[in-house]
Each structure stands twice: as structure tokens, then as C-alpha cells.
Amino acid sequence: MLRENPSVDESELLTRVREVHGDNPKLAATVTRTRKRIERKKTAS
Length: 45
Hints:
2 helices, mainly alpha, single chain
């Protein structure tokens, strides 16, 4: 989802990830970390 829409709102992204992967106490931190990793890759390219 981030690759298709990198400007997606954080709450919308979390909702979508929960729908796909289920809820997890560390989900928000994982989503934030993944977003940063993808953004770094895009700027490095």
C-alpha cells in the first residue's frame, strides 16, 4: 500500500494493515519503521 500511495495517512495505513495482518501490540511501531525504510529506499534510488 505504501508503494502505491506513499502519502497515505498513518491511521488509514494502520487500519489497512490490521485488516490484512490482524492486530498486534507492536503494529504501530512496525508500520512506522517500515514506512521510514521504504522512504529511505526511494530517496536512495
